[in-house]
Amino acid sequence: MKKVEHIGIAVKNLSSANELFAKLFAKESYKSEKVEREGVTTSFFQLGDTKIELLEATNPDSAISKFIEKRGEGIHHIAFEVEDIRLEMVRLEKLGFTLLNKEPQKGADNKLICFLHPKSANGILVELCQEIK
Ligand code: CMX
Q1: Is the dihedral of CA 89, 35, 46, 22 positive or negative?
Q2: How far apart are CA 21 and CA 61, in angstroms?
Q3: pLDDT value at position 72?
Q4: For ligand 1, mutation pick of 117, 125, 128, 129 (most atoms within 8 Å of CB)
Q5: Which of 9, 42, 51, 125 is most buried per CB count within 10 Å?
């Protein structure tokens, strides 16, 4: 794995969270994007070499709605950049991590992504992501 690509934070209201994090970072979000398949609207802040992704649910079945219902707002996942996502998926599955996708999916911010179940990673929802070139 190359680096922490971003940290995902589940929020109830993206527009007020955007204002709050803009104050915290003293900079604006550089992009907002809806990911229909995941049931989320996202907003990204660049911080040096890494990013913060705010996530608001677009429907009650979204993973973000369920997360907020159960655990409240807060850190939802950590995403790690990988060179070759398919190789990493094979490597990690062999080591006992539970992949939540059989194939890489198209995620926000021009990435191929795959999630690992938090129960197989010490309670952390891990996202692998590879830049689409
Ligand atoms: N971090 C840590 N633990 C989490 C978690 C998270 N983000 N989300 C759920 N859990 C925990 C639950 O609290 C629960 O723990 P307990 O059993 O101790 O109560 C357990 O995982 C539940 O697991 P589950 O019943 O298998 O599944 P859920 O229906 O709660 O779904 C998960 C959890 C991770 C499988 C589901 O959210 C998922 O598939 N996530 C991947 C996709 C995703 O998160 N998309 C949104 C972001 C998209 C983006 O970044 O663009």
Answers
A1: negative
A2: 26
A3: 98
A4: 125
A5: 42
**Residues 14, 4: Cα–Cα separation, whole Å:** 22
pLDDT at 46 exceeding the cut of 90: yes
CA distances to 4, 122, 125 from 68, in Å: 23, 19, 14
Task: Kindly give the residue spans of alpha helices, DSSP state H, lying in the chain.
Answer: 14-25, 63-71, 85-94
Question: What percent of the chain shows pLDDT beyond 90?
Answer: 94
For 102-117, how does the pLDDT look when each residue is reduced to its tens digit (9 = 90+)?
A: 999 998 888 999 999 9
Of 6, 68, 70, best ligand 1 pocket probe by most atoms within 8 Å of the beta carbon = 70
DSSP code, position 49:
T
The ligand 1 atom nearest the CA atom of 77: 7
Taking the C-alpha atoms of residue 19 and residue 41, their distance in angstroms, rounded to an integer, is 15
